[in-house]
Amino acid sequence: MLIVFPIFQTVGFYGFANWVPTLLVKQGITVTSSLLYTTVIGLAAPLGPLIGY
Question: What pLDDT shows up at residue 1?
Answer without folding.
Answer: 82
